[in-house]
Specification:
The chain has helices at about 55-65, 70-85, 85-105, 105-120, 130-145, 150, 160-165, 185-205; strands spanning about 5, 20-25, 25-30, 45. It is mainly alpha-helical. The protein has two domains: about 5-105, no CATH class; about 130-205. The strands form two sheets. A two-stranded parallel sheet has the order 1-4. The chain has a two-stranded antiparallel ribbon with strand order 2-3. Helix 5 (about 130-145) packs antiparallel against helix 8 (about 185-205).
Length: about 210
């Protein structure tokens, strides 16, 4: 199919097999509560003249009605929106599709999708990882600055040390490698370094487009 039309004010009589039009939020809604649009393709959508003037939340709500679930309709709509210059709406649609996929998944797939979500926003909102990096570096600086080792090494803020130990392959001061923390701080240091590798892995994977959208 090349186009779909759902305009309720066009004067076109509705097919007798279609459900009655209902009012939703003071607007007429011609779509049924459940739709099966897997494999449904189009190059124009909306009213008689087509167009993409609907708010992005409308598209998300429309796709949320599909039963059974598939990512394919989300990709098709996102491609259509991108073609028409609606970049933000396309990203919102793809993000909603991944959220629905997370809800529908189980086992290892659910765990992997959850990790994609919290670290890089499914590869769509990659700025999530920047929040992780900044948060972990500031937390590390706070933890390390309260140790006796930091006072002995004259590191009142420990921001440089936290940055160096969090980011793999980064060396700011050679003396940092000589510090040996004791007690619970040492175990936090292990976690700090591990989280640095995890964030780096997700960031590189997102940039390389390894997360399917």
């Amino acid at each position: 199919m090349s186009a779909w039309v759902d305009s309720t004010g066009s004067g076109i009589p509705r097919n007798k097999n279609c459900p009655p039009v209902k009012a939703v939020n003071d607007e007429l809604d011609p779509w049924p509560p459940r739709i099966d649009i897997i494999g449904f393709s189009y190059d124009r959508a909306g009213g008689l003249g087509g167009g993409t003037d609907r708010p992005q939340d409308w598209y998300v709500e429309w796709l949320a009605r599909q039963v059974p679930f598939s990512l394919d309709p989300y990709r098709r709509l996102a491609d259509y929106l991108l073609t028409n210059g609606r970049v933000a709406a396309a990203n919102q649609v793809l993000y909603a599709g991944k959220e629905r996929q997370l809800e529908e998944s189980e086992g290892l797939t659910r765990v992997l999708l959850f990790l994609q979500w919290i670290f890089v926003g499914y590869g769509i909102r990659t700025w999530y990882i920047l929040a992780w990096v900044l948060g972990m570096i500031l937390l590390g600086a706070l933890v390390f600055s309260r140790t006796q080792e930091a006072r002995l090494r004259n590191m009142p803020y420990c921001l440089a040390y936290s940055t160096e130990t969090f980011l793999p392959f980064v060396e700011l001061r050679r003396q940092h490698g000589e510090i040996d923390f004791a007690g619970r701080t040492r175990y936090y240091l292990y976690l700090h370094k591990l989280m640095g590798w995890v964030c780096s892995l997700f960031f590189v994977s997102a940039l390389a487009g390894l997360f399917e959208v």
